[in-house]
Amino acid sequence: MVQLKRGNCTAGIDKGELISFIFEEHEFIHQKGSPGWRSADTEMFPIIGPLNETGFRVQVPRGSGAIQDQHGLLRELEYELISQTGTSVIFRKEYEMGTRVRNSKFPEKSDKEWLFWPYSFTFEKSFELKEDNLEITFTISGERDMPFMLGYHPAFKLHTDSPTIFTNDRKITLDEVLVVGSRALQVENCKSITLKDKKDIKIEIEGFEHFMCWTEVKNMVCIEPITFYPYAIAQRELHTGFQYLADADAVFKVTLKV
């Protein structure tokens, strides 16, 4: 595990997964093994959302489509540690077009044992710890015009019975998130969210356009920056939410401010 420290802040990263962010002895990240979710954070790429209604196939410009499971195949790949200092670290995943990737949801939750994507790409995830914030940067490089969606899926530990999520013009209770269930609550056209709990944390984004919020328990909540909210359309139309790589790398940032 990589341990970053600066001032009163520490961050723990295990194989690219943010498993701890502590400020003045307060843990902000959901802990594995606690009720709610088996992970602490993950990425949704190159698609966001489920594809069970379309046979786990998504329409792309190249070939006859791609086989993907919920939230894409990136989470099935392992990060490689590229560089590290006391306050920063960079991880990378690389994928070669057409490579079959074993689906961890098979056979219990999916009938597709293998997933593939008809484009090559490199995906970097970096962490930089500052005095009162943690900056997480995602850099995507690959073939020009490769379609993709990106979502970041961190889970925050809750310490009180009545946490509240605030945007510039909206107040969201935990009960509102719970009612929406597995679809996740949409928070559109939003660049920052503050989770008010025992200690507050602000999530600011660059490159992403929206958030969605999800939980099925009261001890954690996922506040997820996304490029596209997939649940407002039919799964057969999911391709309409793609962005496309240009000549330059696509860069997205999430800053956790305490």
UniProtKB/TrEMBL annotation:
Name of the featured protein: Aldose 1-epimerase
Q: How does it assemble?
A: Monomer.
Q: Which cofactors are required for activity?
A: Ca(2+)
Species the sequence originates in: Flagellimonas hymeniacidonis
- Keywords of the record: Calcium
For this chain's UniProt record, which GO biological process terms are given? carbohydrate metabolic process
A Gene Ontology molecular function term for this protein is: carbohydrate binding
Q: Which domain of life is it from?
A: Bacteria
Q: What is the lineage of its organism?
A: Bacteria, Pseudomonadati, Bacteroidota, Flavobacteriia, Flavobacteriales
